[in-house]
Write a structure and sequence with these properties.
Elements (H helix, E strand, L loop, with lengths): L2 H12 L3 H8 L3 H15 L4 E3 L4 E3 L1 H24 L6 E8 L1 H5 L2 H11 L2 E8 L2 H9 L5 E5 L7 E9 L1 E5 L20 E3 L5 H12 L7 E3 L3 H9 L5 E4 H9 L4 E2 L9 E8 L5 H13 L10
Parallel strand pairs: 3-4, 3-5, 8-9
Antiparallel strand pairs: 1-2, 5-12, 6-12, 7-10, 7-11
Keywords: DNA-binding, Transcription, Transcription regulation
Pfam families: HTH_1, LysR_substrate
Protein name: Transcriptional regulator, LysR-family
Length: 299
């Protein structure tokens, strides 16, 4: 029995499928299956029930899974103590929300490549509700999204927060701007979709101030939301740095008399059972690179 065989068994059992597990280990599916077969031969029993469509743990495989995790965790601790400064190699796939992708993600990738030139980086930008299942299924090594996660399998570490500001086009209000939270009820709200983390703080704001939202116009792209606000299609909120710059250019006006939204926390998230040094080392680099007050790369 070898650690490589235990790795193959553990990740095959906890990832979405054998293909995802093989990708995490940077080997082919056939190599993964071979290692599992060798482990089964050493044990003298099957760990998976296989058919044409899927592989499901046998009762023995299910019982041994926790023990395999403990052995691998001990091995990772040993290697971490032995080679804390070792440069990382292989492939890292991570996910970020749109705000991070438009601001400091390029800085993070540059920092990773300078620190670990042999590590291949594959970023994926999407909504948090899309990224979290992929993280839990093993398709991503970590994610930086609005959090903390509510999934028990995912650990979260605070990495920063964003303050949002109410804004609208300068010409939208010829008379007085909205003064009270209740004034928002009669407005069109331009926001990201309901699955976005920013809508979480909007819903809390509406409940806190006992406001029933009227019409909503949603778009999955934050830059497009800013453009729609600029065109006077409704009122909404943007990250403080974005809002300040667009107000300075005369494209938007801050609705400063409305009660403020609470800040939105962002977290570095990873699977609790993933003790690889890479995950923790990249968390430290992400903390160095994080800057939610940055303007969008193209602004």
């Amino acid at each position: 029995m070898t650690l490589k065989q235990l790795e193959a068994f553990y990740w095959a059992a906890t990832c979405k499928n054998f293909s995802v597990a093989a990708g995490r280990l940077n080997i082919s599916v056939s190599s993964l299956s071979k290692r599992i077969g060798e482990l089964e031969a050493a044990i003298g029993a099957d760990l998976f029930n296989r058919d044409n469509r899927s592989a499901v743990l046998t009762p023995l495989g299910d019982r041994l899974l926790a023990h395999a995790r403990d052995v691998l965790r001990s091995a990772e601790h040993f290697m971490r103590r032995a080679s804390d400064a070792r440069a990382l190699s292989g492939r890292c796939r991570f996910g970020v929300g749109e705000l991070t992708s438009l601001t400091w993600m390029p800085r993070l990738i540059s920092l990773i490549q300078r620190t670990h030139p042999n590590l291949s980086v594959e970023p994926h930008a999407n909504l948090g509700q899309v990224l979290e299942p992929r993280l839990e299924d093993g398709e991503l090594d970590f994610a930086i999204i609005a959090g903390p996660s509510t999934r028990t399998a995912i650990a979260s570490h605070s990495i920063g927060q964003v303050q949002f500001v109410w804004v609208a086009a300068p010409g939208l209000y010829r008379g007085a701007q909205p003064l009270r939270a209740q004034d928002v009820a009669g407005q069109t709200l331009v926001t990201l979709p309901n699955s976005a983390g920013t809508v979480r703080i909007l819903d809390e704001w509406l409940v806190e101030h006992q406001v029933t939202a009227g019409r909503r116009m949603t778009c999955e792209n934050l830059g497009a939301v800013a453009g729609m606000l600029k065109e006077g299609l409704g009122i909404g909120f943007l990250p403080r740095a974005w809002a300040a710059e667009l107000v300075r250019r005369g494209h938007l006006a801050e609705l400063g008399r409305l009660p403020p939204l609470r800040p939105l926390a962002y977290t570095y998230q990873w699977r609790r059972d993933d003790t690889r040094p890479m995950v923790q080392q990249l968390r430290e680099l992400a903390a160095q690179a994080a800057d939610f007050e940055m303007l969008p790369c193209l602004m």
